[in-house]
Amino acid sequence: MTIQATLDRDITPVGADYELVRQVIERITLDFQSQPSLEDIASDLGVTPSKLQKTFSRWSGLTPKAFLQAVTLDHARRLIGAEGLPLLDASLELGLSGPGRLHDLFVTHEAMSPGEFKSGGAGLAVRYGFHPSPFGTAVVMATDRGLCGLAFADPGGEAAALEDMARRWPGARLIADQESTAGYARRVFSTDAWNRDQPLRVVLIGTDFQVRVWEALLRIPLGTASTYSDVARAIGQPTASRAVGAAVGRNPISFVVPCHRALGKSGALTGYHWGITRKRAMLGWETGQLTCS
DNA sequence: TTTATTAAGGCCT
DNA sequence: AGGCCTTAATAAA
């Protein structure tokens, strides 16, 4: 089957599962300050915790817990970044018990401490490299704590994409280092861990346009390359490939690789999966279940 | 003193 | 063994 035919095929399921996932996202998004537990959410929605966990994970590639963390982190960036709150105040505002939690959140998801993030990465070394990916050239950025950024570039737009990402840490020292980012790229996009029979799982909240883009992404089988143009055509706006690129690679998407067996040599790594998380939407894909266990 | 980071220890799988 | 949590000591500004 051609990619175009695949994109045209409507596999978007509707029904109880989707509705459940939608409600979970809504609940967590609106009520993150209470840091609801799995049990809290499940009982509110009238399902068992395990049903909630499984259904949500299957659809999104993220556990409800991970999604809550992504939402919390998103607000945390705003509070300590734009609003400049002290870490303690921000922690309490977010419903966390203290700055220790906030620290964990930033180290695991942003590969930097909350203080480093707050200061715009002052004095921080950020290495970057460009690597091929199923969504075009990927800009991969890493600190010595791990992957700190990932974006996608249109052909010829590599420098612009890098600059766009670099704005997140105006105080950081950028170092071109293709070799050190290659390992991350390999882990994130390791196609041999993908199951070709399973489509991308995408759960989304966004503008109409973004939702259409993500629905198109949902139809791309794992490990199958597509292009911005293909997606643009699939959503009926063949000239919108640039906007598609923006929707895929920029702000609204939180992107998480749930699991992978390739562990770093450094035992200090708090995770072999890293995510950059932004806004309230997320794109996750399932790696083969076999590699997760 | 205020703020940020890291440690200690407990509680769950 | 490790994730996640609270509390609190220690470091830095």
TrEMBL record:
<protein>
    <recommendedName>
        <fullName>methylated-DNA--[protein]-cysteine S-methyltransferase</fullName>
        <ecNumber>2.1.1.63</ecNumber>
    </recommendedName>
</protein>
<feature type="domain" description="HTH araC/xylS-type">
    <location>
        <begin position="22"/>
        <end position="120"/>
    </location>
</feature>
<keyword id="KW-0808">Transferase</keyword>
<dbReference type="GO" id="GO:0006281">
    <property type="term" value="P:DNA repair"/>
</dbReference>
<keyword id="KW-0489">Methyltransferase</keyword>
<dbReference type="InterPro" id="IPR036631">
    <property type="entry name" value="MGMT_N_sf"/>
</dbReference>
<dbReference type="InterPro" id="IPR036388">
    <property type="entry name" value="WH-like_DNA-bd_sf"/>
</dbReference>
<dbReference type="InterPro" id="IPR014048">
    <property type="entry name" value="MethylDNA_cys_MeTrfase_DNA-bd"/>
</dbReference>
<dbReference type="GO" id="GO:0003908">
    <property type="term" value="F:methylated-DNA-[protein]-cysteine S-methyltransferase activity"/>
</dbReference>
<dbReference type="InterPro" id="IPR018060">
    <property type="entry name" value="HTH_AraC"/>
</dbReference>
<comment type="similarity">
    <text>Belongs to the MGMT family.</text>
</comment>
<dbReference type="GO" id="GO:0043565">
    <property type="term" value="F:sequence-specific DNA binding"/>
</dbReference>
<dbReference type="GO" id="GO:0032259">
    <property type="term" value="P:methylation"/>
</dbReference>
<dbReference type="Pfam" id="PF01035">
    <property type="entry name" value="DNA_binding_1"/>
</dbReference>
<keyword id="KW-0227">DNA damage</keyword>
<keyword id="KW-0805">Transcription regulation</keyword>
<keyword id="KW-0804">Transcription</keyword>
<dbReference type="InterPro" id="IPR009057">
    <property type="entry name" value="Homeodomain-like_sf"/>
</dbReference>
<keyword id="KW-0234">DNA repair</keyword>
<dbReference type="GO" id="GO:0003700">
    <property type="term" value="F:DNA-binding transcription factor activity"/>
</dbReference>
<dbReference type="Pfam" id="PF12833">
    <property type="entry name" value="HTH_18"/>
</dbReference>
<dbReference type="InterPro" id="IPR036217">
    <property type="entry name" value="MethylDNA_cys_MeTrfase_DNAb"/>
</dbReference>
